[in-house]
Amino acid sequence: MEEKDPAAGSADLFEAHRPHLRAVAYRMLGSLAEAEDAVQDTWLRYDRTDTAEVENLGGWLTTVIGRLCLTQLRSRAQRREESFESRTEAGGEEPPPRIPDPLIGRADAPDPEQEVLLADSVGLALMVVLESLSPAERVSFVLHDMFAVPFEEIAPLIEKTAAATRQLASRARRKVQGRAPAPDRDLARQRVAVDAFFAATRTGDLDALLVVLDPEVVLRADGDAGRERRPVLLRGARTVAGQAVMFRGLSPYARPALINGAAGVVVIGANGRPVSIMAFTVVDGVITAIDVLSDPDRLAALDLAAFAD
User: Fold this and answer.
1) How far is 61 from 306, CA to CA, in rounded Å?
2) Helix axes 10-29, 32-47, angle to 10 degrees
3) Which CATH number fits the domain that encloses residue 233?
4) Which residue, 109, 144, 179, sits at the end of a domain?
5) 81 and 223 part of one domain
6) Do both 229 and 259 map to the same domain?
7) pTM of the model
8) How confident is residue 52, by pLDDT bands cut at 50, 70 and 90?
9) What's the domain count of the chain?
10) Same domain flag for 30 and 154
11) Dist CA 224 CA 294 (whole Å)
């Protein structure tokens, strides 16, 4: 039985679980700031709870943060539904899923803290697909498939039976497998495809782009309502290639990076300011998804100092 150690203190015991809790919350919420808030709220609940009789403290903490994240996801879903209803009334369409916060590291020498985060990360394309799941689907899938929490322990969180929870996770799994195929594990092979993409973009070689892009490739780019820039969702190699050629001026400023543990780039403009972050999903040597984050406010909130030189 895991107890609070009077010598080490309850804070030290909690700190041992912090990396795991942060990983759970990030996969649940796709927001680094919200994940940190959820971890802090979990600490507050732990600090004022007598856990001396808790046999599995890690499981107890995972359940607590899972419940907090579920509440946040439901609130977010409600806001999205209200926003969609207002757009529908005005003749608008539902936008693509929000691009989650990326985990970014240097391609050549990530710092130790980033190495820990990146080693335990999942691809940004998968994180985008998680954004499209219902709150109950996301909680069921993340806790069971990613962290091996039994369905019997997840069921009370979402107020379902264990059997219904299993069905939710299965449905979520099918969506994930269909929309976010497992990327190549060889990072060098990923980088070859990304470098070929930018080489073709730099020269405006449409044929070369079509070779490196999967025929069903998807490009997703974030929007920025404050600047009246809507999210972008493009499908198909020719459509994506045509768009990529339009932005070939940015190609010389693309700096290799690790985005959620996969090959990607950080684009730093001539003025030294970040322009965008591009995450690539490479499967069997070709690019199947490109996720672009270019909102200046979100970029400013990220630590990109390592790419400013």
Assistant:
1) 34
2) 140
3) 3.10.450.50
4) 179
5) no
6) yes
7) 0.86
8) confident
9) 2
10) yes
11) 9
> Amino acid identity, residue 248?
R
Same domain, residue pair 173 and 200: no
Instruction: Report the pLDDT averaged over residues 210-226.
Output: 86
- Map tokens 């499209």 to a residue: 132
Same domain, 154 and 246: no
What is the number of alpha carbons within 13 Å of residue 151 lying toward its C-beta? 13
Last-in-domain residue among 179, 214, 239: 179
> Is 72 domain-assigned?
yes
Whether residue 267 sits in one domain with residue 195: yes
Q: What is the CATH number of the domain that holds 85?
A: 1.20.140
Domain of residue 64, residue span: 10-96+129-179
State both tokens at 191: 């980088």
pLDDT tens track for 57-90: 999 999 999 999 999 999 998 887 665 454 544 4
How far is Cα 258 from Cα 175, in angstroms, rounded to an integer? 25
d(CA 253, CA 269): 6
Instruction: Go through the chain and tell me how many residues it has.
Output: 309
Residue 231 and residue 96 in contact, taking contact as beta carbons nearer than 8 Å? yes
